[in-house]
Write a structure and sequence with these properties.
It contains ten helices and no strands. By secondary structure, the chain is mostly helical.
Amino acid sequence: MNSEKCKSAALRYVAMQAKTEGQVEDYLKRKGFEKESIEEALVFLREYDYINDEKFCRMYFREAAIKGKGRRRIEQELIKKKISPAFARTVLNEMLSDDNPEYDILMEEILPEKERALKLGRKMLRIHLEDGKEADKNFMAKVGRRLISQGYGQDVLYSVIGTLMKESKKCKDDTDE
């Protein structure tokens, strides 16, 4: 009987939104179910594809990238959702590999990481310039902190800052004429 209650609880939990296997396991432990019942419930959910960590990683990456998050931040968020770091890295590497048959479609949908970061930086620059402020070192540092908080690496950060500095100088030169 305990096993059936555990399965029911697990089904209710995953019915609300997609969950990782680790999240379901933690939830069932908090509810006080025994280890054997939890394992049976997890097998049941896997069997009917209610939990699938690989699909979860792929879906989560796609959604987070569309929102402008960088790969590092997405990996950290997946780890918080009880995906192992090695597994998350493997799935993301496979997704972002040229060998992935869906790679071109994915890149059209989410944009490459540098372009996502540049889009965020340009938005910040536009707002800053519209407020009548100058794009100085302090502003560029602010952009850098924001990009880091969104999970972009240093190579992307330096490239975006360089591009923004050139664009802000060009905007300044255009208004001076």
